[in-house]
Amino acid sequence: MTEAILLVGGKGTRLRPLTVHTPKPMVPAAGVPFLTHQLARARAAGVDHVVMATSYLAEVFEPYFGDGSHLGLHLEYVTEEEPLGTGGAIRNVAARLHSRPDEPVLVFNGDVLSGLDIRALVDAHTAACADVSLHLTRVTDPRAFGLVPTDGGGRVTAFLEKPQAPEEIVTDQINAGCYVFNRSVIDTIPAGRPVSVERETFPVLLAAGAHLHGMVDSTYWLDLGTPQSFVRGSADLVLGRAPSPAVPGRCGERLILDTAEVAGDAKLTGGSVAGAGVAVGPGARIDGSALLDGAVIASGARIRDSMIGTGARIGADTVLDGAVVGDGAVVGDGNELRGGIRVWCHARIPAGAVRFSSDT
Question: What sequence ranges are listed for the domain Mannose-1-phosphate guanyltransferase C-terminal (predicted)?
Fold first, then answer.
């Protein structure tokens, strides 16, 4: 198995303001764009050709990754003129694939952080003689996800989208966002229109008698769709809880990139990241947070479980807890922002203007 499709076209609406200027897969996690971790793990699993299905801010990807040779990959880019959904995006890049009809093609969602053994998924697909195989994981509360029940042999029996009533929750297994398609199956997806693999492709294949196989994997898994989960995923990469060969340094309590400047008595803990050109002042305390490139944290600031955007400035003695501060924003001295508050890009909050706030 030598090639993969990466679905990186989403707008990342739930992650705003982090995605106002940056497509979701390019938002930094543990010091590098999140997509870097996915590409590195794919390469480690034996993939050498990746086609990126792009749409929103498509022009950002190729200047950063180029042809992929520095990663040991051959990268290609296909841009959707109009959003096509997951299935439509897969079909839209089919002409760039090199696999024969009976060979497997790996498909990744661009917003899932996982410890999945990719080779094991492909091997399970081959052993089961499946048409499509899905990575499944178990969650405590499956109501926000698509349920995928399987029989005793791992064969998928149904697809149930986001059940709400208790009687609809027939399994805790959910679609974890990584698939193996036989190349021939991709060609059966309708071309030139939006298609959802979850709501259309998989149910249609199942109704037609195709063999859809589910492999339940209990390793690390996190959907990075919200700012809180994205911050958590970045911290878990730094701490070594989530595996990636692309973390630019040793795993531990902190990751400080070479050009960052951190005062001697400042403390970064809980998997915090200080990106390129970041400045952290004396006495600052950063816990479980990501400071993106060029952010400035003044003396005495307290930042927990938060993300500070590129070039943003946080004033002296300001407290941030579960906050997201957009690119270029300025939060003045002595503010206190908690409970999931989001500060928009280039917004300015004067000194002492907010003592406590939360999303409502």
Answer: 252-338
Per DSSP, what are the bridge partners of residue 161? 146
- Domain boundaries along the sequence of the chain: 2-227, 253-349
Residue 269: helix, strand or coil by DSSP? Answer: strand
| Catalytic residue flag (residue 24) | no
Q: Which H helix or E strand runs over 229? A: helix 227-239
Which residue in 215, 217, 197, 216 sits closest to 5, CA to CA?
197
pTM of the model: 0.90
The domain defined by 2-227 carries CATH number 3.90.930.12: no
Non-local (6+) Cβ contacts of 349 within 8 A are: 329, 330, 331, 332, 335, 337, 343
> Contact 298/280 with Cβ under 8 angstroms?
no
- Structure confidence by residue, pLDDT tens digits, 200-220: 999 999 999 999 999 999 899
Q: How far apart are CA 221 and CA 37, in angstroms?
A: 14
Q: Are 39 and 68 in contact (CB under 8 A)?
A: yes
Which CATH code fits 253-349? Answer: 2.160.10.10
SS3 call for 64: helix
* Residues forming a β-bridge with 285: 267, 302
Q: Give CA separation, 140 vs 20, 144, 174, 280, in Å.
A: 32, 11, 10, 38
CA of 244: how far to CAs of 133, 141, 220, in Å? Answer: 23, 27, 11
- The 10s digit of each residue's pLDDT in 283-338 is 999 999 999 999 999 999 999 999 999 999 999 999 999 999 999 999 999 999 99
C-alpha span between 116 and 135 (Å, rounded): 8
Backbone angles phi, psi at 247, to 5 degrees: -65, 125
The beta-strand segments (E) located in 63-130 are 74-79, 104-109, 112-114
